[in-house]
Amino acid sequence: MPQGRTVINAVDASGEPVDPITVQGPYKTAIGNIVRDNVPIKYQSWNGKEDPNLTVPDQIKELCWEKLLESFIFPSDSAREIAKKKVLKTMGERFKQFRCILYKHVKAGTEPDWDQYPSQRAYWADFLAYKSSTKAKEMSQRNTENALSNPLPHNLGTRGIVRKLPQWDAEFQEMEKNGVVPETVGWEMRSLIFALSHGSSHGPDGKLVSKDERAKHLVKRIQEVREEVSSGAFVPDRENDVLSRALGTKEHPGRVRGMGLVPWELGFAEYSDSYRSRSRSKAQREAVVDDLMQKVRDEMDASRSKVA
Q1: pTM for the full model?
Q2: Is the pLDDT of residue 102 over 90?
Q3: Beta-bridge partner residues of 240
Q4: Strand ranges, E, within the chain
């Protein structure tokens, strides 16, 4: 745990501390330590929908939040409330990761170093019993298959995108200083961040260099989709934008690729009004109906011509 108390000057709209940027490391480390020390591993999930007795209680979550406040001071009550929502999400992720680390011991037939996790030793038997069950093994197999199906996992570690933004900004400033025009000038921010966080980087000449074939393919697809936008063949619309079309998969609700664990209304802020209105979905349905009706009319015209 960090020593003393650190003052956080500002958090962004998602609740991430952004000033000072150096707080990112200690902040995430503290969250992980608090979860490992205070959340019993007898619980199977952070936000479960099945057995409430196997889900981390709200009292323990509140305790973890209070522990974090012992090490960090937020600039205002509103900033603290915004940060709390993000912290509780992050704690859920850390709890899941911690259980994955312990599960490796189950598969290897070993026990963790209890000097590292003294508060968890009393719950090891419960954890072992669950992880040895058929239900847990089937779930582990599904999770492994899902993880392997991700063709482009990011390589930023647990501290995520926010920590890398100043570094990328400095690189752009250095290129500008040297008179180098980046190949990605004009790219949408989300596409740019996603490419940089998944194995691509700018070379000395400003070209986007990719470490493997998957990253190269992504960059190529983004460039192709941007050409479709320029020609009018594709019109980006909210989460169905250049990056989503390039990846070929839909955006996951509750998070925004290329921006981290932020909801759509923050990740696509320019479309915020449409998230609170049914007019957009209504217009989409009408467009689908119009398209179907036009196809029917075309088929009828073709049939008439054939009969004539």
Answers
A1: 0.62
A2: yes
A3: 237
A4: 6-7, 10-11, 17-19, 72-73, 200-202, 208-210
